[in-house]
Amino acid sequence: MGLRLSLRARALLALAVAAVVPPLVVLGVRRAGLEAGAAGVAAVLVMLPLLAWLAALWLAPLLRLTRALEGAVLSYRDGDFSLNLAPEAPGELAVLTRLHAELGLALREQRQHLAQRELLLDTVVQNSPVALVLTGPGGRIAIANLAARQLLGDGRSLAGLDFGAVIARQPEALREALAGEADRLFAVTLQDGGEETFHHSTRSFRLQGQPHRLRLLRRMTRELSRAEVATWKRVIRVLSHELNNSLAPISSLAHSGAELARRGDRQRLPGVLASIGERAAHLHGFLAGYASFAKLPAPRREAVHWPAFLARLATLAEFRIDGAPPAEPGWFDPAQIEQALLNLMKNAHESGSATDAVALRLGLQGGELCIEVLDRGPGMSEAVLAQALLPFYSTKRAGTGLGLALAREIAEAHDGRIALANRDDGGLRVAITLPQPP
């Protein structure tokens, strides 16, 4: 019966007892013939144990609930969400126990979902063909999937080992790639004598305030082989097309020249021979363009002063300067960057843009030099933008597909990049970004 009383009823009962019992005790003592002082002492002696019992009765549910909550919190801290509070409680505490039960159920469900997701993620990570290595503070390996264990540890577990000690036993190319902090392609000679090409990518981040680094190694030999075959097929198609376009007229003109010579018509013979020479020169220039793309030398960087560089460039192409050039000199191979810009400006003029709308913009941002070629042509569709930088891709009927590809090769040889984007008001923006020394 006492457990079913609410806390308010218990408090009212204690107050009623405290108000009624002392007068009754005093009255009973006075009737017994004792003095007022003795009556007061008797009332106190009776009331103290009674009030102590009532207080204990009133606080008992609170004390039980407090102990239960303490145990539940300790269980939650240890990851055990199965503990529930007893349902018997005064009305004021019933809501709290119900909410606690709902919280425990929600935490159990979330933990189950997390466990399922962790199991799924671990299954995906462990069975991924990409070798994954996660290192924590001090360079200790926290996670290494099956592919990483096969590649770096002959199938043995790598967790807890020092990453530097693990890669020290690897081939030089693999060791250098894993020790670096840059994405790169590299080839490794395996124990069976075969050569495998890998792509290494790495990222650093902080987990629970501690520095971590994730390294991914992907085997690229098969993909690169397929891409290489596709590229060679495209090269062969382009070369065959261009050779046929030049050799067929040359063969026809040679036959015509021989017939004119047989007839003694020497007046028309020089024109035929000149046409043969033009087609041969065109073919020579076409092949020379391919050779220059295939034999691009390493850039020879030097300090380039803008007035002299821009003045020479202006003698080779028509353009205007958009804004003032940087005050500091650039740091790049002037001959190669000049060639890249000439290719870009040639494309800008051939796009149908007005001559005075072809512009060159220079700027320094965050330690990088940005060189932009702008035009007001029709721009490019999304499909063309996605493939424009690929070698041998061209939308022009007589194009070789090497202009933008050569510009890309030059930019990347300078450890830079090239990007194409349509301008808001029409036209194309081609930006070459080159790192500059501090």
Order of helices and strands: HHHEEHHHEEEHHEHEEHEEHHEE
Work out the count of structural domains: 4
Structural class: alpha+beta
Which quaternary structure do these chains form?
single chain
- Overall CATH class of the largest domain: Alpha Beta
CATH superfamily of the largest domain: Histidine kinase-like ATPase, C-terminal domain
Mean pLDDT: 79
Looking at the overall shape, the CATH architecture of the largest domain is: 2-Layer Sandwich
Distance between the termini: 84 Å
Describe this structure in a few short sentences.
With 438 residues, the protein is α+β, with helices and mostly antiparallel strands. The chain is built from twelve helices and twelve strands.
Can you describe this structure?
With 438 residues, the protein is α+β, with helices and mostly antiparallel strands. It has four domains: 2-113, no CATH class; 127-219, 2-Layer Sandwich (Beta-Lactamase); 224-294; 302-435, Heat Shock Protein 90 (2-Layer Sandwich). Helices cover 54% and strands 17% of the residues. The protein is built from twelve helices and twelve strands. The chain has helices spanning 7-31, 36-77, 91-126, 146-153, 163-167, 172-179, 221-263, 269-294, 306-314, 334-350, 382-387, 403-413; strands at residues 131-135, 141-144, 184-189, 195-207, 210-219, 302-304, 320-321, 330-332, 359-365, 368-374, 417-422, 428-435. It has a five-stranded antiparallel sheet with strand order 2-1-5-4-3. Strands 7-9-10-12-11 form a five-stranded mixed sheet. A hairpin with a 2-residue loop joins strand 9 and strand 10 (368-374). Helix 1 (7-31) packs antiparallel against helix 2 (36-77), helix 7 (221-263) runs antiparallel to helix 8 and helix 10 runs antiparallel to helix 12. The radius of gyration is 43 Å and the shape is elongated. The chain starts with 6 loop residues before the first helix and ends with a strand. The model has no long low-confidence stretch (mean pLDDT 79).
